[in-house]
Amino acid sequence: MTGPVVVGLDGSPASVTAAWWAAREAVDRRLPLLLLHSWTTQPLNVPVPQEALSKQRYGGQVLRRTEAELLHRHPGLTLTTELVSDPAAEALLAAGETASLLVLGSRGHGSVASFLLGSISLHVLGLAHCPAVVVRAGDPAVPEGWRPSADDRGDIVVGVQQNGPTTAPLLEFALTTAQLHRARVLAVRALPVSSLMTHPHALTEPGDEAWQAAEHGRLGAELAPWREKFPDVELVQRIDRGAPAQVLLAASQHSRLTVVGRRRHPSRLTWKLGPVAHAALHHMPCPVAVVPHD
């Protein structure tokens, strides 16, 4: 992909953290970065009168300040800004038609490992044409300003519940990103506890080694073509029993990025995120990428 990395910037701490994450990603991917601000869709706590001119001035200041900070840190970055009057969700979805990646910020809520997503973010995540990443405000994995990133974040975790075209875009995105960052990919699959009742080894111990070996062999065969396609990326597999969202969350406690999928929708009037994507977006302790698939 050659389109830009696009980040929605409204001046909030969450959007600034997202911009720092997006800038680093753009540099690593050798792509331009676009900072997009909708002056008609600003945070409720913006300390300016509600006149249109004041909103436009505020938006311009936010873009210029963030642009200067990012270019100071990444002098080789190709960066443009855009101040638009379209609603934020509409503007971001339009930019996503040609973007390689959309990046959104999310306020922390409750525990440290929790997101608070607004209707704009959920709308964009449910309809974006390209992969979209949500970054939590103050995420220690993001090298914001002159603060280095946390050094305990390593793996890129991807959920692979089933083989075939549904999983392919997720693995492609995860492995490509890992190759850029020289990271390891952890492919995670959850098996429901009820599967024990239908498995040939169900009458033996639940942790039956033969049963586990068979499941790992099946997943290994599915991942074999990807290991050949990305020979320089370490691809590790993990299978646990439990609900998919819980298994993925447990595997992502120290990851630098978690990748989940969602189905494409034929109409912008009908869209939704699945339960695993919802759980990941609200509870993962790291940035979350939502990758559309057929």
Automatic annotation (TrEMBL):
Coiled coil: none annotated. Residues 1-136, 156-292 form the UspA domain. SUPFAM superfamilies: Adenine nucleotide alpha hydrolases-like (SSF52402). Gene3D superfamilies: HUPs. Belongs to the universal stress protein A family. PANTHER family: ADENINE NUCLEOTIDE ALPHA HYDROLASES-LIKE SUPERFAMILY PROTEIN. This is Universal stress protein. It comes from Streptomyces justiciae.
